[in-house]
């Protein structure tokens, strides 16, 4: 034992004596080997300087970049989508899109961008329902699950073993007995409170289970970044759900800590469901190594007439791609605004391009409205959020805190003509580090409906005034500055 202790002391002594050289090596790795935004590099160098050695361990856990296109590439899906992509490119390039959808002419370049970079085919036969209440969301979802005849595909970031999941589990287990194929994909970090026995019980009942980025040792999760933050459910390839609600009691307002949970989910019927289905299949085929799901088996052709519904694009992004499709969509929509912008997000840590675009919009006379929670679920992130919000308040934006519980809705409405809602927050983590999925709905009626939801929420909001922000305490100012300094790595 004495020998072991002596070895440990020697190691500690060696590290302490060579800290400058060790830090220099780590700094070279961060600056010259990993490709990062300069602000992020400086933030990491500060962490490395103030917390030597341990700072680099933290960097390994949350800071390293990955580009894993090949891991998520599915040749079969790419081949089947490529023909439709080429056809739509021709339609947009020949200005036919404006003929079909005069209201969409303004956004034809955005449609083309997402088509070209993300294979996001535009479909125009969709029925889209907006859901803002957790109890209503799960009521509708459970009704659709009960009607399933062929397949149920479920993908969530957070699932907790409580009464909400108990109800879902009961339906899924019963549908398996009826001959329905049921697959459930979960993120290991988001579902870390669920024991392995719970998943084994589901597998024993006939449900196929896949885990995204599993923990290395038991429940010890060393990969904090690159989480699958998507929430997708597809029933029989005909009905799709996407949005902010996870599966736990707080999402139906049963957690006293948060109170009422205000979120937004979209229920979609039509051809856009095929893209939600393909997104699920791509994620599943990466996480479930036993066998690959055949794409064509689960893509159901819509029976709805072309042009009979809302134009929709499903866009996804993550660290497996070089393009930040959702972030770029937000940025393009902000630049296109001529009248109004409505943003709801629990975390507001924009990159420089998004933040500058919003400042320009405010200073150009565009009505910019941003709503955030009044309480933090992650305090460090909250005070960084408040710092950015404060600057926009001083610039003239209308910024509000939601005071009726917790706000978790994620999306943007521009000029009450188009909306983009889904799983992505307005922050750097959602833009570049997590796997996300959003739906863009190019429809004035749905955009006005979503803007009306925002205005209805204002009844339980408090506006952040210029004087109120300037009069905040020195302690709050300090928290803002510290948290914002490290916001590039949050």
Provide a descriptive summary of the structure in words.
The chain is an alpha/beta fold and 490 residues long. It is 47% helix and 20% strand. It has 3 domains: 2-62, no CATH class; 69-85 and 127-310, Endonuclease Chain A (Endonuclease, Chain A), CATH 3.30.870.10; 325-489, Endonuclease, Chain A, CATH 3.30.870.10. The protein has 20 helices and 18 strands. It has a 16-stranded mixed beta sheet that branches. Helix 11 (196-204) links the parallel strand 3 (181-187) and strand 4. The model is unreliable at 66-72 (pLDDT under 50).
Secondary structure elements and their pairing?
Layout lengths: L1 H16 L1 H15 L4 H13 L3 H9 L6 H4 L2 H19 L2 H5 L7 H11 L4 E11 H14 L3 E6 L6 H15 L3 E7 L8 H9 L3 E5 L19 E4 L3 E5 L17 E9 L2 H16 L7 H4 L11 E8 L7 H12 L3 E5 L3 E2 L2 H12 L3 E7 L5 H17 L2 E5 L3 E2 L3 E4 L3 E5 L3 E2 H6 L2 E6 L2 H14 L3 E3 L2 H5 L3 H12 L5
